[in-house]
Amino acid sequence: MDEPLVWGILPAEHFLRARPMRWSLGASDICFTNSFFSEFFRQGQVLETFRGNGIRQHAVDRSIELLNQGEWVHIFPEGKIAQPAHSKLRRFKWGIGRMLMETDELPEIIPMWLTGFDQVMDESRRFPRFLPRAGKCVSVTFGVSDVVRGRVSALRESHNRIRSGERETAHVRANITRAVQEELENLGEKVSGSGRGIQKEAK
Predict the structure, then answer these.
(1) Over the stretch 73-82, which tens digit does the pLDDT of each residue have?
(2) Which of 57, 71, 92 is nearest to 180 (CA)?
(3) Which pLDDT does position 4 carry in this prediction?
(4) CB distance 26 to 49 below 8 Å
(5) What percent of the chain has pLDDT over 70?
(6) Residue 177's closest CA among 148, 157, 200?
């Protein structure tokens, strides 16, 4: 439910235009389980992503192409359902780092922090599981692009100057992913608190 609720904040006229309309990545085992769902999500500009196939798969390749074309790609970077009540997140997937390293120009990076969505479709809900729970309070907080974009830009530039081998490239890719996660968690801490003592940060 995160996607339709989040974009409910946009002006109505935005939905009457095919561009700019967001692209997103969706897990094959959740969004593409039958022909009806597959067509539904493809028409909704969701790229089928296969868990465990790593960063060299079509969905990541296509995301880079779309970013190079100036398109909007929206990503849930943990790559799985997560419903934390605090700012500490699971380790982000390195596909994020690859996208931000391999675009021709560094795209805008806008961090978003969602709260209350875990109450709309919480994992422990009972029958009827397929229905969202009404009357919940949700919020969408947007961060500032400049800080995270500056960190990623510096890492990209250092890598482009050196142009090292795959091992060094993987290291920079991981650092870019970590920078995005840290800045998103900083935003989350302002909104939801640090969560220290609730969940250890992934290493």
Answers:
(1) 999 888 766 5
(2) 92
(3) 66
(4) yes
(5) 87
(6) 148
Half-sphere exposure of 165 (CA within 13 A, CB side): 1
pLDDT band (50, 70, 90) for residue 2: low
In the numeric block, which tokens belong to residue 175? Answer: 């650092």
Q: Which helix (H) or strand (E) holds 140?
A: strand 139-142
Could you say which DSSP state residue 49 is in? E
Taking alpha carbons only, the member of 141, 152, 145, 202 closest to residue 177 is 152
Cα–Cα–Cα angle for 137, 139, 142, rounded to 5 degrees: 180
Q: Please determine, for residue 200, whether its predicted confidence score (pLDDT) is greater than 50.
A: no
**Taking the model in full, what pTM does it have?**
0.82
Q: Would you say how long the chain is, in residues? A: 203
If one counts every other C-beta atom within 10 angstroms of the C-beta of residue 40, the result is: 13
Of 134, 42, 133, 62, nearest in space to 102 by CA: 62
pLDDT > 90? residue 122: no
DSSP 33: S
How many other β-carbons are positioned within 10 Å of the β-carbon of residue 76?
18
Q: How far apart are CA 48 and CA 130, in angstroms?
A: 22
The residues with which 73 forms a beta bridge, in sequence order, are 23
Helices (H), 44-144: 58-68, 95-102, 117-120
